[in-house]
Design brief:
The protein contains 14 helices and 16 strands. It has 411 residues and is of the alpha/beta class. β11 (256-260), α8 and β12 (282-285) form a beta-alpha-beta unit. The strands form two sheets. Strands 1, 2, 3, 4, 5, 14, 15 and 16 form an eight-stranded mixed beta sheet that branches. It has two domains: 2-55 and 363-406, Urease, subunit C, domain 1; 57-355, Alpha-Beta Barrel (TIM Barrel), CATH 3.20.20. The chain binds zinc ion (ZN). Zinc ion binds next to loops.
């Protein structure tokens, strides 16, 4: 099939006016501008008209499980109170509620142009009941052992046996030791060893809130009190920042995708600066959730200057108001006005593809990449295409996933 559009925005290359993209067997076979690609004999041609064609968007951090909890928890005065409120709501959810939430989350993500979603799986036992995934999905098995009836080793063994059952070509798995305040160092190390053997991506929440920082750095504060009250061993507190603690004890390096990093000390930046960029972990920022909690300003410029691979995610609907990635980067634009539209789009495409080990396969329009594409209304000059994409609100009217047109009919 040959797709034509007013503009093709490959992301990994400059915008192409009057572009064409050839799709063969679910992959991109060729891309060119103007008259560079003529239809082959018998080839189907789909002219998308006044649109910009770009790679489908990748949500680098989400919790589809909580997609029915929009506005369910009002912003609390503390992060710890929010965690407690969310936990009490979670206990009331039935398996059917969770499955319904995942389905709704998928639908909303797709409506806003997401073709790949990285979702934490707090209820992995339910995943076999989901049926075929409607979007390309990385399910990150959430692992918590502070109050677990299973040992850390049993938890990891259970996760691995579960992954071996997967046969859905759109689904991949990773491991998510939840956060340094809910997962032990042993669990982090076991997860890292398993991921190293199986090639899985690792993700965790770290340095999200000032309360987490206070717990680790000073052994005090609301999160410290809450978790010590639950019986969590607190001997890891009072030595280092949460990021520094994990970095020094678990070698949080290039195979990790770190969610948040809102609260970093100078010593944390020094740790990052000591490594070449290619060995650094990737980082995902969630602007809506960040605003909801009122966290300190995300250190985007400093992390970018160190060469950190920066991605954007929505987090869950329990702490943001939509699963629109374009809406999330518009928020980021408000707090970081110097960010160019091209850089914002890279954080939704190339950067998360790299974090998932999918460079050249996802997040770009280039020969050999999977044909995960979206089209947005656009009729301006090529140099205005990226800004028009960022400005697009509402549903995305055309999507292709693995070479198949999904959702709405062509524009
Ligand atoms: Zn999260």
């Amino acid at each position: 099939m040959l797709l034509r559009a007013n503009t093709v925005l490959p992301i990994c290359a400059p915008a192409l006016p009057y572009g064409a993209v050839r799709v063969v067997d679910g992959r991109i076979a060729a891309v060119a501008g103007a008259a560079g690609l003529a239809p082959l004999p018998g080839e189907e041609v789909l002219d998308l008209g006044e649109t910009v064609l770009l790679p489908g968007l990748i949500n680098a951090h989400c919790h589809l499980d909580y997609s029915t909890l929009r506005h369910a928890v009002a912003p609390q005065s503390s992060f710890t109170e929010w965690v407690q409120r969310l936990n009490s709501i979670k206990r009331q959810l039935s398996p059917e509620d969770i499955l319904d939430a995942i389905g709704r989350g998928y639908a909303e993500a797709q409506q806003f142009g997401t073709t790949t979603v990285c979702s934490m799986a707090a209820f992995p036992d339910l995943l076999p009941r989901l049926g075929s995934a409607p979007l390309r999905t990385w399910w990150f098995y959430e692992m918590i052992d502070i109050r677990h009836r299973l040992t850390s080793e049993e938890l990891v063994a259970g996760a691995l046996s579960f992954f071996n059952q997967n046969a859905d070509p759109l689904v991949r798995y990773g491991l998510n030791p939840h956060a340094p305040y809910t997962a032990s160092l042993l669990l982090y190390r076991l997860a890292q060893a398993c991921a190293g053997e199986s090639g899985m991506v690792l993700t965790t929440h770290v340095a999200e809130s000032q309360e987490e920082d206070e717990m680790f750095t000073h052994a005090r504060g609301p999160l410290y009190d809450f978790l010590s009250g639950l019986g969590r061993p607190m001997h890891d507190c009072g030595h280092d920042t949460p990021f520094g603690w994990l970095w020094r004890n678990c070698a949080i390096r290039g195979q990790w995708l770190l969610a948040h990093l809102n609260v970093l000390a100078e010593s944390d930046f020094a740790l990052l600066a000591a490594l070449p960029p290619e060995q650094l972990p990737s980082v995902v920022h969630c602007p809506g959730s960040h605003r909801y909690f009122g966290h300190p300003v995300f250190p985007f410029e400093r992390l970018a200057a160190l060469g950190v691979n920066l991605c954007v995610g929505t987090d869950s609907l329990a702490s943001t108001d939509s699963l629109s990635l374009l809406g999330e980067v518009r928020r980021m634009q408000e707090s970081h006005p110097d960010l160019q539209p091209e850089a914002l789009l890279q954080m939704l495409t190339l950067a998360p593809a790299r974090a998932l080990g999918q460079e050249g396969r996802l997040g770009c329009i280039s020969p050999g990449a999977l044909a995960d594409l979206i089209a947005l209304p656009f009729c301006g000059p090529p140099e205005a295409a990226a800004a028009a994409c960022i400005a697009h609100s509402g549903r995305v009217p055309w999507m292709m996933l693995g070479g198949k047109i999904v959702g709405s009919p062509p524009l």
